[in-house]
Amino acid sequence: MPVGQDLALSRIGSKFTNNEGSVVEIINLSDERAKSGNIKFICRFVQSGEVFTAEYTNLTKGHFKDYNLPSVFGVGYTYKGATNSIYYKTWNHMLERCYNENFHAYPRYGGSGVKVCDRWLHLKLFEEDVKKLPNHDLFVAEPSKYSLDKDMVGNKMIYSPETCTFANATDQSRNRRNVRPIYAISKESGQRTRFESVRHCEQVLGIPNQNIDKVLKGKRKSAGGYTYEYIDSPKR
């Protein structure tokens, strides 16, 4: 036998644990060799049954990962080299807002019931879907200016292929204003009428939304015989 073969054979059955708690067992020697010429081992994850090859030193250091288990905030599934994806940061932050209770924005997202659809818990599937979302080309061209938005076309409570788009800060700010509830106060009678948004008010009263917006911003005193004021803080 080649030098080291006896020692390698003696290591079959050894188990190792990484820092995520995943356990692997060496089940055989591999015909594959590392670039250094070292023997590689065929290993199997005890929990998922996934099989892979690795060098002994990487096993002892815990340098292995079971991609069949959720490893991102306890719910997200990645793949080897995932952090090099242009979508990884967007995906990671989406999960963080919804599932990391220690994240500063969690109370406004996961703490308020916002979730990510099951399909998007898998980065690979997320990558497939977001390429079809509105403004994807703009996100790819300027990723620092565009982010994933669930409010403009969705119900504000779930991230999914059907409820998301890419949007810049200007679009998101305009949308928050447009969905903020307002009062229209009649200058003649003083009667206050509630509307769920500027757009809703425009549809009912027939007053251009840009004129209503100017009153709300203090750029004009009234529009269409009404003054306007916001009722509460912007919705998530």
Explain what this protein looks like in three dimensions.
There is one protein chain. By secondary structure, this protein is of the alpha+beta class. It has helices spanning 5-10, 56-60, 88-99, 123-130, 136-141, 169-178, 198-205, 209-216; strands spanning 15-17, 23-33, 39-45, 51-55, 115-116, 146-149, 158-159, 165-168, 182-186, 192-195, 226-230. It has a 4-stranded antiparallel beta sheet. Strands 10-9-11 form a 3-stranded antiparallel beta sheet. It starts with a helix and ends in a 6-residue tail after the last strand. The model has no long low-confidence stretch (mean pLDDT 89).
Keyword list:
236 residues; alpha+beta; four-stranded antiparallel beta sheet; 27% helix; 22% strand; rod-shaped
Summarize the structure.
This protein is of the alpha+beta class and 236 residues long. It has helices spanning 5-10, 56-60, 88-99, 123-130, 136-141, 169-178, 198-205, 209-216; strands at residues 15-17, 23-33, 39-45, 51-55, 115-116, 146-149, 158-159, 165-168, 182-186, 192-195, 226-230.
Q: Could you tell me the radius of gyration in angstroms?
A: 27 Å
Biggest β-sheet strands, sense, barrel? 4 strands, antiparallel
Distance between the termini: 67 Å
Q: What's the number of helices?
A: 8
Strand arrangement in the largest pleated sheet: 1-2-3-4
The overall strand count is 11
What's the helical proportion of residues? 25-40%
**Uncertain segments:** none
Strand content: 15-25%
pLDDT averaged over residues: 89
Structural class: alpha+beta
Oligomer: single chain
Task: Label the overall shape.
Answer: rod-shaped
Q: What are the secondary-structure elements, in order, as H or E?
A: HEEEEHHEHHEEEHEEHHE
